[in-house]
Amino acid sequence: MAKIKGAIVVNTERCKGCNLCVVACPVDVISLAKEVNMKGYNFAHPVLEDDCIGCAACANVCPDGCISVYKIKVE
After folding, report:
1. Which ranges of 25-70 would DSSP assign to H, the alpha helix?
2. Beta bridge pairs of residue 9
3. Could you give the angle at the alpha carbon of 70 between the alpha carbons of 67 and 75, nearest 5°?
4. What's the structural domain count of the chain?
5. What is the domain range of residue 68?
6. Residue 59: which residues within 8 A CB-CB, separation 6 or more?
7. What span, in angstroms and rounded, lies between the C-alpha atoms of 30 and 72?
8. Given 10, 56, 59, 60, which residue has the most CB atoms within 10 angstroms?
9. What is the pTM of this model?
């Protein structure tokens, strides 16, 4: 049976750095970047991409819909 791996994509220019996704992630995949986007906010980005389980908790709590979650089948 194939395993499922998660992957997230963050729209960094729309992210306002509210930190809700960081708190919601059960496996601590996301953190806020030290860099800022065009609006001056520290944006969310995946730091441990290989640990993502694709639960979509981050996308569900994002108030601006900046996070897309994908599930990838791994053989």
Report:
1. 57-61
2. 68
3. 155
4. 1
5. 3-74
6. 8, 21, 65, 67, 68, 69
7. 18
8. 10
9. 0.85
